[in-house]
Amino acid sequence: MRLLLAPMEGLLDHSLRDTLTRVGGIDLCVSEFIRVTDGLLPKRAFLRVLPELLHGGRTPAGVPVRAQLLGSDPHCLAENAGRLAELGPAGIDLNFGCPAKTVNRHRGGAVLLDEPELIAQIVSAVRRAVPAHVPVSAKMRLGFNDDSRAEECAQAIESAGASELVVHARTKAHGYRPPAYWDRIADVRQCVSLPMVANGEIWTLADALRCREVTGCKDLMIGRGMVSHPGLALEIVLHDAAQARRGQPMQGAFDQTPTEVSWARLWPLLLVFWQRMSLHVAPRHRSGRLKQWLNYLRRHYPQAQAAFDALRLVHEPRQIEAWLMEPLALS
After folding, report:
1. Under a CB-based contact definition with an 8 Å cutoff, are residues 317 and 286 in contact?
2. Contacts of 289 (CB under 8 A, 6+ apart)
3. Which residues sit opposite 70 in a β-bridge?
4. What is the pLDDT of residues 88-121, one digit of tens each?
5. Through-space distance between the first and last CA atoms of the chain, rounded to whole angstroms
6. Pick from 277, 317, 314, 313: which is nearest to 293 by CA?
């Protein structure tokens, strides 16, 4: 059973991937998308999004990272996938799920879910362009305006040779509003045989267990839930291990909560994130990036609210770093 860290454009970049994978429990990451339009990208374009390519395609904690491409031109995507594969990522992922209006307006992401024939052409072209040992996966939503073609899109992806499919259990029209329609992932599973990963509205251990039960997917992809609760993947892994030792079903009841990743353990990782992020983010944007993550952490850690309040009006990087170097004043 694998746990995948989802891509989150504008938030979950290589700095946060590095930080979250240090906690444990994550088996595979997928990068933010690399936009492909009408030409062959230079090597630096791939490295900007995936500096892990310089280290065997893995985060410093050793977790493999799959590179994600976004576009609508099969030939151009295939050409770039071939070059990218030479750099050694853990695989190539194709984005058919981004709901951003600017991306969709330029014929990328979820808008392609109304064109399953084109989806098949893209997957097929990329599959042919990269070596057989390099996985080619895809991520899709249930549809664009509705989910009437979800099964057709999944079948197109499978028939074109993809090795794995992640399904986000909402349409583009749903955005990120709850609920996630996990039952529709179960429907899609019935019409394809390739491995499937469930994604959407997994915030807690209970959500993860329920999602597995409803969808039938053993593998999960988690995004906002991991950013808000960095110990979630580890919590799921520890629960699964405990249940296996007891010989009980993975979705069965559990009588104790696995070890929590405390604020005291998370605190040093805030500094790791700050230092890693500062290497590539302009000084004027650094405070915003840290506050962005603290805003998510407030959902799970009361201490994150105090940290957010303490830094709300602080913008000078040296002041923030000095504050982060202090002992656990907010414990």
Report:
1. yes
2. 277, 281
3. 35
4. 999 999 999 999 998 998 889 999 999 999 999 9
5. 34
6. 277
**Alpha-carbon span 224 to 58, nearest angstrom:** 21
pLDDT tens per residue, range 146-159: 999 999 999 999 99
Domains of the chain and any CATH numbers: 3-246 (3.20.20.70), 263-324 (1.20.225)
- Tell me the three state secondary structure of residue 329: coil
Residue that is written with structure tokens 């989910």 in the block: 147
Which residues is 28 bridged to in the sheet?
A: 4
- Is 211 labeled as catalytic in the residue annotation? no
Residue 42 CA to residue 21 CA, distance in Å, equals 28
64-94 core/surface letters (b: 16 or more CB in 10 A; e: else): bbbbbbbbbbbebbbbbbbbbbeebbbbbbb
Global pTM reads 0.93
Of 29, 98, 153, 217, which is the active-site residue? 98
Three-state secondary-structure class, residue 193: coil
Instruction: Return the H-helix or E-strand segment holding 173.
Output: none
Phi/psi of residue 301, each to 5°?
Answer: -115, 115
